[in-house]
Amino acid sequence: MVWSTEEAPDCGRGVVITDNWPGYDLNLFTYPQHCYGDLKYVLIPQGIIVDRIERLAKDIMKDIGYCDIMVLCVLQGGYKCCADVLEHLKNIS
């Protein structure tokens, strides 16, 4: 099940997805035809990810203030997420 921070206290900021969350039904989404038969459910929709990245950028600006920052992405596969956060940071400042 998916919980908000209000419903799942003491979990910090964000959304908590429990281990037994069955995911969203595929009928709720459009996805490429070549994926038909390979997918069983959608665990986290793109919109939630985009909203969370935007919120992360807002939280960063709230925590450090509006000053010059230097960002270093240290995860090889994290460049896309890092780039998305930077884009939102640029839009905020």
Automatic annotation (TrEMBL):
- Chain segments annotated as transmembrane: none
A single Gene Ontology MF term assigned here is: glycosyltransferase activity
Taxonomy, superkingdom = Eukaryota
Keyword DNA-binding (UniProt): no
Show the GO cellular component annotation of the record: cytosol
InterPro entries hit by this protein? HGPRT, PRTase-like
Q: Which UniProt keywords apply?
A: Glycosyltransferase, Transferase
Carries keyword Transferase? yes
Supply the name of the protein: Phosphoribosyltransferase domain-containing protein 1
Taxonomic source organism: Sciurus carolinensis
Record lineage: Eukaryota, Metazoa, Chordata, Craniata, Vertebrata
